[in-house]
Give the backbone structure.
Amino acid sequence: MLYQDIFQKIEIVYQDDFIIVLNKPSGLTVNRSITQKDGTLQDYVESKFDFLSKAKASIDSEFVSRSGIVHRLDKDTSGLILVAKDPKSFVNLQSQFREREIVKDYLAVVVGKMSEDNMNVAAPIQRNPQKRMTYAVVAKGKPAETRIARIKELKLEDSIFTLVTASPKTGRTHQIRVHLFALNIPVACDRVYSSKKQFELSSLYFNRLMLHAYKISFIHPKTKHVVDFTCPPSKEFHM
């Protein structure tokens, strides 16, 4: 298989009869699209698990069309992804996302220093009027809130990078990346949401987007108990 190398990097963190928790590597697209027709996490799920063939669901249902994958991560972001094994669990988990009952925490390495140890960024986001394929902080955008906390700083030669946690309270597209860019501390190696100088600087030390979804907490759709899962980031984050 053409994509076997990256598929082998996917880790099954947990699974039972209702859900699967996967650790997605950086560089892997989650869902198929017009521009990405194969080699996605969706293709991996379909090749690895047989729950879809057993599903008593219409072929037009979102559960089937998305192969049970409940949410997304950007292609170059690594970390935890939830997959539902049946339509009922799928709908339940999607509802938890809509109601903001699912808690996600990320690790990020950013370019520069945080001005404070802890920051709460509440800044609305919408498509960038000047660059429609990206998003930006815009006054009339949708409400978006991210909590950011400094872990430690690292000096590499004459450059400062900071390891932070980022916890989005809302789920806007590219939210963490947009908010950090707005603070002028973009995610290292973010080709889209950083200046040319910041990108070139971080590329001297890192070879991937330095954003990792390391923790997720939600109510199990069957047991109704709160469950937590974590996965450590790749070696690049060991600062």
Summary: DSSP finds seven helices and eleven strands in the chain.
